Write a sequence for this structure.
């Protein structure tokens, strides 16, 4: 047999063997890459809110879980969703924001001195943030709550508490006048698309009242509130 022909046959045999080994390795790799998907785990929290004011009912507690963002930021303009909640207690737009992964509302108005516990559950929420907001309904646009609290470090049975103050949404002037507040002290209008205040979120300066020289006010000294306005406790239950 000629040398060149012998060399060609040998090279062909080497290539064929390499292809066969490669095919076997590919099959083995496919077998090794089979991974069982983990079973989704439910993570649950109970959130207890206590109204610390003397005569300021809270609108239904609004709780959202989200992966990023904040419900508000001091010194910046309030979103329309926050404006609606702070002026009328309406949480519908807050719950439909794109960053929200889970939401839950309280059963109803939370009266002064009372507490309510709301539970919320989500799957595998190691990156979740919790925010909470509720309106002080005998005001023009005061609200209280929590903003983007991380939950990753809470183990089952762990609790975290905070005393929180009142914020001013800055979307409606604090006139305290008749027809401008939705609470029982007035029974007036809620959300108004026109903004006539500073248009930035701040800490709330408090109620003035008719008894302290605000002639337009329908509120009394009983509607004043000190800071903090609420106590909030988060407990991981599952």
């Amino acid at each position: 047999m000629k040398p060149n022909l012998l060399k060609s046959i040998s090279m062909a045999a080497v290539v064929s063997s390499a292809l066969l080994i490669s095919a076997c390795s590919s099959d083995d790799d496919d077998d090794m890459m089979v991974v069982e998907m983990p079973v989704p785990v439910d993570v649950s929290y109970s959130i207890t809110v206590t109204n610390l004011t003397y005569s300021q009912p809270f609108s239904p507690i609004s709780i959202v879980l989200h992966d990023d963002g904040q419900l508000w930021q001091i010194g910046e303009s309030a979103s329309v969703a926050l404006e609606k909640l702070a002026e009328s207690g309406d949480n519908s737009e807050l719950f439909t924001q794109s960053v929200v992964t889970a939401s839950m509302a309280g059963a109803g108005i939370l009266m002064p001195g009372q507490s309510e516990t709301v539970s919320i559950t989500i799957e595998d929420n190691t990156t979740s943030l919790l925010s909470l907001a509720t309106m002080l309904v005998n005001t023009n646009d005061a609200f209280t709550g929590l903003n983007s609290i991380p939950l990753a470090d809470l183990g089952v049975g762990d609790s975290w508490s905070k005393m929180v103050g009142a914020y001013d949404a800055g979307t409606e002037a604090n006139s305290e006048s008749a027809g401008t507040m939705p609470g029982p002290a007035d029974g007036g209008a809620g959300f108004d698309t026109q903004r006539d205040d500073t248009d930035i979120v701040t800490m709330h300066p408090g109620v003035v009242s008719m008894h302290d020289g605000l002639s337009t006010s329908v509120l009394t000294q009983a509607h004043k509130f000190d800071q903090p306005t609420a106590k909030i406790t988060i407990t991981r239950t599952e």
